[in-house]
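Side project, low priority. Logging it here so it doesn't get lost.
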Amino acid sequence: MTNGRQKSIFSKPRLGLALGSGSARGWSHIGVIRALEELGFEPDIVCGTSVGALVGAAYASGHLDLLERWVEELKWADVLGYMLRAFVGQESIQSKNQLAGIFGETIGTMLIEDLPKGFGAVATDLDTGQEVWFRKGSLLDALSPSIAYPGLLNPIFFDGRWLVDGALVNPVPVSLCRALGADIVIAVNLNGDLLGKNHDRPDNADSKEKWIGTEREPDFWSRLIAPFMNLRDKKKDSSGEDVDENEYPPKLFEVISGAINIMQDRITRSRMAGDPPDLSITPRLSQIGHLEFHRSEEVILEGKRSVERMLPALEDILHPFR
């Protein structure tokens, strides 16, 4: 005789989806989920870190369509506005009001244990570095700290401690998926295609207009956003000849972005070596900057393509779910 928590040997295995961190690259999770659905694979358990928690919460709660519409309407000016409000201490995107505006008012009362799919999110204790798992309670209480990107979004005070982005300790939460009962785990790793490629950016005025928008922006805005977009102005020597870009240092955010990429790559490799998934999907998004949230169309498309590239392996490993 078995208790309710034990599974029959004849029960269908449970599929888990571990959605990793990656800032703006995280919109590719939407494409991955859409592609899996088209193939007939529907995860039973979804866990996420940082932007992976945002997309995972939307999917697990049945609000992915709302999130996708909001993402598709994002413009660079919107991203800049969210950043500035966070910098001056005003309401940031991870506040309950903002999240309710994205997902709809009903999300405010949702409990994780009542969701139609299993869900978990990862955050980090800012004082101790301890990994914090959210597996029950308010969905918004779990989501707000998990997406609290250090320096951009506010830390969240919860249960007597300050919590920040879970990517600092567990960028791809395979372990949480296993803990929630997933038998087979597909991981979406957004940090596997980054190192050595963060300089691949346009560096002329025409390209700047393409990245900023269809209309020419004032010089002030060009100078303001250039460090965040990793754009470089061509420099000339005393004779008027162009100087090789390798002979002058990268801009501030390019340095910060490169350092973050290195740390995330090393942490991800370490954690996934200790908690290996059954299959890892790695979208190719090295050309997407950390804050380029407005480039959702190409990022979501690459998410779909990353699933297509893994189709033979997916068909093999997910055969029990047919």
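Brief comment: The first strand starts at residue 15 and ends at 19.
Revisit when time allows.
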